[in-house]
Amino acid sequence: MAQHNAFYAQSGGVTAVINASACGVIQACRRHPDRIGKVYAGHNGIIGALTEDLIDVSQESEETIAALRHTPGGAFGSCRYKLKDIESHRAHYERLIEVFKAHDIRYFFYNGGGDSADTCLKVSQLSEKLGYPLTAIHVPKTVDNDLPITDNSPGFGSVAKYIATSTLETSLDIASMCATSTKVFVLEVMGRHAGWIAAAGALAGQGEDEPPHLVIFPEVHFDRARVMARVEESVKTYGYCVIVISEGARYEDGTFLADAGNTDAFGHRQLGGVAPTLAGMVKQDLGYKYHWAVADYLQRAARHLASRTDVEQAYAVGEKAVELAIAGRNAMMPAIKRVSDSPYEWRIEAAALAEVANREKFMPREFIREDGFGITAACRQYLSPLIQGEDFPPFENGLPKVAHLKRARVTRKLTEFTI
Fold first, then answer.
1. What sign for the dihedral angle of Cα 46, 75, 27, 152?
2. Each residue's pLDDT tens digit, 162-182
3. What are residue 160's phi and psi, to 5 degrees?
4. DSSP character for 339?
5. In chain numbering, where does the site feature Important for catalytic activity fall (predicted)?
6. In whole angstroms, what is the distance from residue 112 CA to residue 325 CA?
7. What is the pLDDT of residue 268?
8. Does 247 belong to an annotated binding site?
């Protein structure tokens, strides 16, 4: 078989372990020099391919690539840029193929969430129409854990561990001060449509009498009167109330509690802070002193508290992506298959992108407690293995040691393209 080059890019919001997937892809490519020549990374995701802004990963040392495994963020730059349907955005897709032809790229690895899976599928379809041999593989990641087919999404386990830990630690803080100070603490977590991260906060307590006293999911319609009644009951019973709320909490009519009135580059509603909104309700309705926090980027950047399970899975899907590509498995995604809960065992299987793209996985009703304010035993059984184990990064001068890349650019061969 002839040798050709590979392209790798990161898309959407990054995670604590997306670079572990990059490490898996790059190291696996380097193990097949007979099939894969150079690996080019798109600077700032798919935009790097469109603008022919390519990073020559071969210029990076083995040591630097290995360090990606414990480096958060997106090492090559990510982006929120969605390619629309082929008909209306055909020039963009043709530009991608043009760039790939110019640099002899026959392998396309796109590391992202649901929108990235859709883009990857469309690129594979157009390459077939244009007669250009390109193997496109989607490398899964998303802290939201909303990708279908795969048991869980790389990136989620580490966020779940961080949120569960933060909920536990802040609960101890509030409990120690509630007699004379703060009565209610609200922690806002990510999750626009699916409440997986909010559910992870519930791992901090083992029963209804332990914090968090309320978990508010996007899947359960927000009822202000019911929520305030439960808050008041918790304060009267325990002296305080800890709430974990998803940014996507919404009313029965579908309106977000914190709709900022804008949309992002993917067309998603821009949310403007549900924690202060809920805290304001508590103050207005009950008069309790409160504090709130928004985990925001902290939850997805906390590589120092990553789940070892998550790190291993993120690396494994990157590695498997290359195996699938070399085997000619076009338009596929390496998916995590849970073999057993106890002991926890998993393996990587191939999933067709046609079954992944434009689909979301929500919290099943059997994972949400009957009253809508917590998780069930089945949910705990699902979540617990995903936060197991620690994979601490090396430290230097008291801080985590991270990879520092050269990001050497590849010489452009084509005319400029405006996106």
1. negative
2. 999 999 999 999 999 999 999
3. -60, -40
4. E
5. 141
6. 17
7. 53
8. yes
Which of 53, 115, 118, 144 is labelled catalytic? 144
Residues 281 and 249 sit within 8 Å (Cβ to Cβ): no
For the beta carbon of residue 126, count every other beta carbon within 10 angstroms.
Answer: 19
Is there a binding annotation on residue 297? yes
Identify whether the C-beta of residue 50 lies closer than 8 Å to the C-beta of residue 95.
yes
| Active-site residue flag, 144 | yes
Lowest pLDDT segment from 264-268, 279-283, 341-345, 352-356: 264-268
144 labelled as ligand-binding? yes
412 in a labelled binding site: no
pLDDT of residue 87: 85
What burial letters (b/e) apply to 170-191, b meaning 16+ CB within 10 Å? bbeebeebbeeeebbbbbbbbb
Q: Is 299 annotated as a binding residue?
A: yes
Domains of the chain and CATH, by start: 4-142+304-357+390-400 (3.40.50.450), 156-303 (3.40.50.460)
261 known ligand binder: no
Which stretch of DSSP H or E encloses residue 36?
Answer: strand 36-42
Q: Torsions phi, psi of 143, nearest 5?
A: -65, -25
Q: Over the stretch 110-159, which tens digit does the pLDDT of each residue have?
A: 999 999 999 999 999 999 989 999 999 999 999 999 999 999 999 999 99
Condensed to tens digits (0 to 9), the pLDDT of residues 177-227 reads 999 999 999 999 999 899 999 999 999 999 878 999 999 999 999 999 999
